[in-house]
Amino acid sequence: MTTAADGLTMNRLIHGAVRRDVRRLAEALEADPDQDRAVDLLRAYRFLRAELTRHHEGEDTHIWPMMARLGADTSLLEQMESEHEAMADALGGVEAALVALASAPSRTTLDAAREEVATMSGIVDAHLRHEEDELEPVLVPMTSTPEWAAVEKKLRGGSVVEAGRFFAWLTDEMSAEEKAFLGTLIPPPVTGLLSRLLGRRYSREIAPVWA
C-alpha cells in the first residue's frame, strides 16, 4: 500500500472477505452437510479464523497504540479491543462446534454449529460496522502522519507466501468492480501471480469448499 487511503481501502476489502466467508459458512450449514463436507468446512473455517486473527493482531499491536499516542479517545480503542476479545471467544465457539459436527454429525451437533455461527456472525457484523462507522472517522486524520506510515510498513510485512495466501483469499468471489478497484492499488498481474503461484493452499484446499 503506497498511501493512507490505500490502507483504509484494503481494510474495507478485508471486511468484505470476512463477511463473505461468514455468509458462505452459514449457507453451507443450512444445506445439512454430511461428515466429509463438515470436515471440509472445518478446514475452510480455520483458514478464515487465522486470517481474521492475524488482521486483529495487527490492529491491537500497531494501529490502536498508534491512535492512542496521537490522542484518540481511549474509550473507543478499549471498545475495539473488547470487541476483538468477544469475537475471539465466538470464533473459538464456532470451531469447537464444527469439530463436534465433523466428528459425529447429528441433528444435535448441526443445530449447535448453526447456533454458534449465528452468534459469531452477529458479533462480527457489529464489530465491523463499529470500526467502519465510529473508528475510521477518527483514524482518517491520522493517516497523513509519520506514525501511520511506520504502522503501514509493519502491517505490510511478512513473507511472500503469506501475501499469496492473503490475496488468493481476498479476491475469491470478489466482484468485478472490487477487482478493478484493487487493480488501482496493486497491478492485476501482481495480484494474479500472488494468487495463482503463491496462494496454492487456499486455491487448492479452501476455495473449492465454497464452490
Biggest sheet layout: none
> Strand-and-helix sequence, N→C?
HHHHHHHHH
What is the alpha-carbon Rg in Å?
A: 18 Å
Give the overall average pLDDT. Answer: 90
What overall geometry do the principal axes of the alpha carbons give? Answer: globular
Helical content stands at over 70%
Number of strands: 0
Instruction: Please report which band the strand proportion falls in: under 5%, 5-15%, 15-25%, 25-35%, 35-45% or over 45%.
Output: under 5%
Given helix and strand content, the structural type is mainly alpha
**Regarding quaternary structure, how should these chains be classified?**
single chain
* Low-pLDDT residue intervals, each spanning 5 or more residues: none
Distance between the termini: 30 Å
- Contiguous helical run count: 9
Task: Describe what you observe in this structure.
With 211 residues, the protein is mainly α. The protein is 85% helix and 0% strand. The longest helix has 35 residues, at 35-69. The two termini are 30 Å apart. The relative contact order is 0.14.
